[in-house]
Structure formats: structure tokens, C-alpha cells
């Protein structure tokens, strides 16, 4: 066999994939990664999943962008085009960095002068570092001069964030994942951590082995169900019915924590009144869970010494996503199951830096550290720091930007490291919107479906090619370190953002990433105490860390909530049905999500040899009895059609899928699940309903 390779050097860093934030070590030989090993970080203690261990060779994939590209004159943008990266020369020509950067900035300035600052928008990335996110939003706010800046958190946890800010004044988790080891009972709802947060799932399973009772609330019979004390396989879209029934049990059986409610909360009377009408007996037919089981789980959650709730996008990606999260917050507040080790609320963050990108201000209504753009004091602070007047109106969110682009109101965009042509709901609409732009600049490592619609493409650096901080789902700020040089003329993202900012007339002079971090910590109280030197020394510090030398706080809300009154607030929720229910024409429910081996839109993992070898083809998961009823065999091609589009994929029999539903991961460009999804929005958080829409299924391809 091949000789064992000996690395020239090892570099300590973190995993580029999910929000668990496992620490790892790169083994490098001749500027190439030859292996990855787990490191003893606070979230992983040496563990890694298949993505962290094997998903790294995308960085040397032959399709990496290595030269700036500009669209050839006269080549139209076609929304329905799926550009084969090997045929890029038909659409683009190579350019020098100076030409590409000049063209990029000149296009934006032309639009800003003619149509005003609000005709421009930027999407940053939850896969970039905190420093990149911070500079990106600073460029949009001070260079474009609007708050039209957002990123994919809008598509994953915007509703959790809205409910948490409203209820307890902070959108970050109250306790780290590892606290499951100290919990007596853990509720996992609308999440499939074995697939999406695999190392977190191992801690949940370890806790179960030590005696923790796991309650899994999920319509799917996911792998974690094997470890559950109770699996509540409720009908899709009936979260509020189930959660209000649990609250009903706790309130009417006197299981609330009176002292906690009196001392730490407000608005309980309204909740008490509200949940009277949601008895388990009344809700059982709706949500499909027996009343006795609901009562048993409600009692166990309320009376255990420490109960913790973790949730994922099965909760958040609904038109009632904010309401779902409001119910979870009410459960914790009513029972005092928050503010102590082993308790609390943990929305499992998806991407490696979705927490940090939000903290850094990649959101249209918030400046860094969740300081509202409508707050004159917050604006004045950043105007002093940045030396530019700021707009006093919040910007548009991801889906709103796409709608505005189609309406001709947004004319120019800057997209760094995101792929809305694959990740947005109803991507046919999103691609039409991107194609309608006068000027699109995309900064990425591959010619993604979004980059294929660009005017200027800027070749960026991959995760192991740069140094920066990343904040995991536990609020822990960790240092990612550069292990490789970018290929060809690809440049560091921080360099690219700064080069563009300078061409927009901004006098930026950062010479090192640590200077950006330093500016951040002086404007963001939550990380004020974290110094670059300390990160280099300790690798990871949990915030809030407001003073230098302070230890950082893995568990928060121990004495008060960061709300104006210091109290947590109950917000009752009514049942709101999905925007598009199955009917005679479209009788199936489509649930979208992810697969263990593939990450989001697949641009990295489908170019990683081992991961792509394990899951090479687009598949639709469907219950074997449903498959039989359709007259299809496993492996046969089936076509899913919604009111917005259709895709064909291989059918895979999977007993975990509820009857009448079909599950598709959104990572397959050749069968993009988001051609089907519904862009209907949660009215509070503007998150689209990616977890539920109606489709029809037929055997055979298109
Ligand atoms: Fe990476 Fe997440 Fe897997 Fe850890 S669990 S190795 S952070 S993908």
C-alpha cells in the first residue's frame, strides 16, 4: 500500500462545519492537509464526526477558484442555468485583482449614486470568522450606507432569536451542550443531532448511559429515538399544540416553581389563563400523542432536579417558529429550569460561526452585540467608532432582499460565502432575483450556483487558509489558525473586504486580524474581556467575559435575565397552521434538512472525496410502506412536485420518516430541494417555512 505520510507540521484549529465547534489538529505536508485529528477542546474532548475527520480535501479540489473572474460582455444571466464549473470560460473571463476590485466597487457606487443606499445589499457568511463578519457588516453599513445586511441565520434560527430576545433578553444559549451530563432530564425537540451535531449527540447518549432521561420530540423516528426514555412522534406542524399541552399539565397540576415565577418572571397570569384551553386530552387528536404520555412528560420535566431543552430547525423553520420557541421558553420559566447547571435553553446552532456572525452584527436590525439600529445611543456609539453617519431604519432580511431584487428595488449585491441560489426557499424565485440584479459581486472558494449569476467573482480563502475567531453554539470563542496558503491568486477574505472598502472611499488600515478583533471587543461588551493573547494561549473562552482576566461564563441567567426589568417574560402562543397544508392536488408533506455526510448546499462536502463516496447521489427518504403503496422500489427514481417546481431523485426506504411525508436534504444541486419549498415567512422573525410544504409524488423521472 501507499507509504505512510509524515507531516511537516501540525496546526491547532477548529472544525469548519457545525456549531458544536470541535477542536482539531491539521497535519500538513507540502502545503496539503494529509490528516485531521481531534483535540481536547471544551465541546469535543478529542471527538470528531465524519465531517470533521474526513471533510477537508475540498480545499485542494481542482474546481477551486484561483483567479478573479468577470462576466464576459453580452453574456446574459439565465436564472434556469446550472453552470458546469468546468465550462466557466463560456460565461467569465479572467481578470487581474485590480480590475476585478475596481469593477466591483464602481458598480456599487454607480447604483448608490443613482438609486440611493437602500438599492444595495450584502449577505455575509456564518462560515466566515467573526472578524470577517464584523468587517463585512461594517462595509455594508458605512460603505453602502444602509443596514441591508443579513446571512443564513435568517434561514435557521431567526425565530429562536426573536423569541429569546423577547422572552429572556439574550439570543445565545443559557447552558453549553455538555451540561446534558448534569441534567436529570433532557428534551430534544425538532433536532436530529446524530446527523447535524454528531459530537453533541454523543454527549447526549453518554448522559443517557449515566441515567439521564431523554425525551425526543420529533415526527421522525431518528437515530436518537433508540436512546430516548420517551419518543413523542407528534404530527408535523403541531408543535404548539403539544407544547401548550405540556404547559397545561404543569400549570393545572401545580408543578410550577412559584418562587421562580414570583422572583424572576413577569406575565405568568396571562400564560396560566391561555393554556387552560390546551388540555392533553383536547390536544391528543391534533398532535397524535396520547394524553397520558403528555402528562407523564410534563410532570417529569417540571419535577426533575435539572431539566434542559435543546432544539433545532424542526422548531424554528415554520411560520409559527417564533411561537414554538416562545412555548419552550415558557416551559423553562414556569418550572425554574434555567439558570443552573444542567438546565436551560439551547438552540443548537447549525454552522460553525452562526452564533459569532450574528454577534458581530450580520443582521439588518442589529449592530454588533445586538445593539439595535433604531436605538439613537447605539447608533451614536458606532458613528463615533466608525466615523460615518448611520441610517436609522433597519434593513431588509434575506427573503425580503430577494423580493426587493425582483421588484427592481435592490439593484446591487455583495455576497460572501453564501449560496442563496441553493439555500433560499423557492430557489427558482431566488435565482430569478439574483439574475435580475444590475450588479452582483460574489466572493467564494467555488463557482457556486450563486456565483454563476455574478458579474464579478472574487476567489477567496478556505477555512484552513486563514486565521480568525469562531463562536460555537456554546458561546465559546475559539481560535481557528491558518494551516495552508490559498491556491493561485486566491486571497484572504479580510484582505478582499478591506480592498473593496478602500475603493468605496473608506480609510481602513488593518494590517492583522488581531486588530479587527481588538476593535470588536472594544465595541462589544460581551467579549470585552477576551484578548487575542488569551485566545492564543487558551484556544477558547466562553462569553460573557466583560473584564480582562474574568473566567467566562458557560452558564448564564443565574440571578437575572438581561431584559430591561431583569425578569423573564411569558408570551402565550396560539396554534397557527402551516402556510401550505396537503390537499387533494398535493397530498404529501415535504420536510427538508441535512444528511450526516453533507453540509448545507454541498459546495464543500460534495467535493470531499470520502464524504461524497459515502453519499454520492440525491435521495428522497420515504417510509417503506408509502413506497410500496406508490408502486416504487427502493433505488428507483421518483419525482416530487410542488406548486413552485419539481425535482427527481432516488427513492430510499426509511422507516424513520412519518407516513405521508418525504424527506430531502438540500445539498444536491442536480435536485435542489429548495425548488420545492415555500417562501412563506414567520411574521415576527421573517424565517421561511423550510420544514413544511405540500408536494405530489410520482414514480419516474422528468
Ligand atoms: Fe465538526 Fe460538528 Fe462534526 Fe464536531 S460535530 S467534527 S464541529 S461537524
TrEMBL record:
Q: Which domain of life is it from?
A: Bacteria
Keywords tagged on the record: 4Fe-4S, Iron, Iron-sulfur, Metal-binding, Oxidoreductase, Repeat
- The UniProt record lists the EC number as 1.17.1.9
The answer to whether keyword Transit peptide applies is no
State a single Gene Ontology molecular function: formate dehydrogenase (NAD+) activity
List each copy of the 4Fe-4S Mo/W bis-MGD-type domain by range: 8-63
So what family is this one in?
Answer: In the C-terminal section; belongs to the prokaryotic molybdopterin-containing oxidoreductase family.
Task: Indicate what this protein is called per its UniProt record.
Answer: Formate dehydrogenase subunit alpha
Q: Which organism is it from?
A: Caldimonas aquatica
Q: Could you say which residues of the full protein are shown?
A: 220 to 921 of 941
